[in-house]
């Protein structure tokens, strides 16, 4: 095994973790939670999404959240941005990193943004261009890389095509998403090797959901191939509003437990992460009983 000595864990709970929960978490609770996360040693927090409120009502207070949190030096505060208007809102509150997003499958992209992939790419390009002018870093999410809830298997050629397009736009990092949590280690190995044959490892991060309980195994596979950046959400929160049955993200505290036991450095305080997870659990009834047992163990 050839694991990296250090891994960057990117906390996406405040955005990807809350966007699919039925409970509307209050502004005050979100701000306190993000402030707790900022104290854990994480270097990256995705705080919200600047989509239209009627699309994702759970994140309708994105501007207020970004203005209210206490920002720590060394922490990147990022947000999802779907279009030019979303970018304007993100820039108004000085988001550090702009995250654009697209699906690798046509049907999921239509469900997600009501546009074809061909129609989505020019919008992303314009957002990326304007973000660069404002000296913002740009991250690109690619959903349904390992499978689509509507179309089944996703073509690796389609994934590579989209990756190329995003990097041409100036996207600095690609988050490769297992949106519905169906990937297995062998598939992750095959997809990751294909990606690494075209792109350097430092431009790639993996975003695993844990629907079938394979997320940690998939992390191990990707790490062994040289990937050292992973998205996760405290408490295993999350899911996809447009992928029925998709459960939450890989839980940050589970990922940290494994990495730290293996002697891999993250710079993150596991106990503080557990405290943040326990806090938000009080505001999100859907947090699984399994994850609550782990938090309380």
UniProtKB/TrEMBL annotation:
Gene3D superfamilies: Aldolase class I
Superkingdom per UniProt: Bacteria
An example Gene Ontology biological process: ketone body biosynthetic process
Chain coiled-coil ranges: none
UniProt keywords, alphabetically: Lyase, Metal-binding
GO MF annotation list: hydroxymethylglutaryl-CoA lyase activity; metal ion binding
One Pfam family from the record: HMGL-like
InterPro entries to which the protein is assigned, alphabetical: Aldolase_TIM, HMGL, PYR_CT
Residues that span the membrane, as ranges: none
Segments forming domain Pyruvate carboxyltransferase: 7-274
SUPFAM superfamilies linked: Aldolase (SSF51569)
Keyword Lyase: yes
Family to which this protein belongs: Belongs to the HMG-CoA lyase family.
Protein name: Hydroxymethylglutaryl-CoA lyase YngG
Species this chain originates from: Oceanobacillus picturae
Upper lineage: Bacteria, Bacillati, Bacillota, Bacilli, Bacillales
Gene: yngG
């Amino acid at each position: 095994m050839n694991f990296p000595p250090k891994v960057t864990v990117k906390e996406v709970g405040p955005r990807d973790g809350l966007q699919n929960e039925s409970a509307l978490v209050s502004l005050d609770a979100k701000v306190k939670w993000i402030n707790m996360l900022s104290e854990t040693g994480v270097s990256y927090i995705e705080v919200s999404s600047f989509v239209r409120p009627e699309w994702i009502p759970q994140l309708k207070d994105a501007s207020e959240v970004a203005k209210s949190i206490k920002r720590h030096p060394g922490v990147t505060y990022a947000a999802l941005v779907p279009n030019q208007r979303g970018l304007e809102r993100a820039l108004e509150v000085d988001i550090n990193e702009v995250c654009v997003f697209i699906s690798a499958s046509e049907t999921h992209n239509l469900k997600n943004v009501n546009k074809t992939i061909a129609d989505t790419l020019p919008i992303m390009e314009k957002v990326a261009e304007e973000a660069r002018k404002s000296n913002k870093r740009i991250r690109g999410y690619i959903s349904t890389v390992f499978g689509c809830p509507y179309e089944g298997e996703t073509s690796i050629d389609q994934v590579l095509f989209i990756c190329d397009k995003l990097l041409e736009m100036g996207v600095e990092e690609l988050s490769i998403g297992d949106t519905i949590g169906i990937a297995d280690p062998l598939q992750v190995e095959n997809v990751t090797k294909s990606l690494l044959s075209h792109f350097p490892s430092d431009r790639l991060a993996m975003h695993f959901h844990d629907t079938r309980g394979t997320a940690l195994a998939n992390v191990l596979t990707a790490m062994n191939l040289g990937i050292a950046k992973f998205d996760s959400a405290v408490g295993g929160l999350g899911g996809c509003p447009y992928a029925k049955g998709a459960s939450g993200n890989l839980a940050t505290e589970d990922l940290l437990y494994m990495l730290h036991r293996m002697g891999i450095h993250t710079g993150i305080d596991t106990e503080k992460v557990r405290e943040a997870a326990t806090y938000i659990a009080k505001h999100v009834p859907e947090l699984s009983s399994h994850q609550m047992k782990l938090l309380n163990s």
